[in-house]
Amino acid sequence: xxTTQREPGSRIRxxxxxxxxxxxxxxxNCSAREAEETTRRVPDLVTxxxxxxxxxxxxxxxxxxxxxxxxxxxxxxxxxxPFVKKSALIGTLSLPREFYDEMKSFxxxxxxIFSTREEALQWLAQD
Length: 127
Description:
alpha/beta, Transcription Regulator spoIIAA, 5-stranded mixed sheet, 5 helices, 23% strand, globular
């Protein structure tokens, strides 16, 4: 495993899909600590963007979470809210089911859940 792959900052990046700029938050196969560290870096990128403009795709596939990681995810969702236009989640089977409802309630944001990255990207690129 290369250092670049494991660097929390490298798991967060903008890319273009069908003419839309999408922020990928790649938490796939992260330990709880990596998920927390990566999540805490997201606001640095999101808050540099115009309000209500950021399209976010978060991949949770194969990750593990502890209380600190779940708290970081909820806090980031609240902090980023003014800057986010749409959020799509994939790989949510690794998240506790009640966490999704808690995250929505805590952040007062909607998060669309998709089975595949392709479905999520198609939804994010609409309108």
